[in-house]
Amino acid sequence: MIIPNGILQAKMITKPGGRDEYGYPIPAEASWSDPIRCQVVPVSVDLQARTGGGSAFTDATYTVLLDYVDRETVTGSEVVKITALDGLIKEQEFFVIKCIPLVAVRQIELLV
Known about the structure:
Elements: E1 6-15, E2 18-19, E3 25-26, E4 29-32, E5 36-50, E6 56-67, H1 71-74, E7 79-84, E8 92-95, E9 98-102, E10 107-111
Antiparallel strand pairs: 1-4, 1-5, 1-7, 2-3, 5-6, 6-10, 7-8, 9-10
């Protein structure tokens, strides 16, 4: 059982890209899935991260738990959009680093 404190949406490719008859790239079309309730837990947050040029940015890693019934939506997705209900995350896109099915407890764990 998860304690939902966020909403997750997975980015799904609806039409794959390719090349036209002249060899120019055709961009892929994507859409967002229906909202899925999830539990978002911060793993590490660095508020003082710097780029090589000295610009500041926030570097964060989160663990996201969701029910096993939503596995079809998120297992093939590379990008997810997360909104935390407590205001910690305000609709940000994250790359999925790892997707682990927790079969014994019927949950999916995402590391983003």
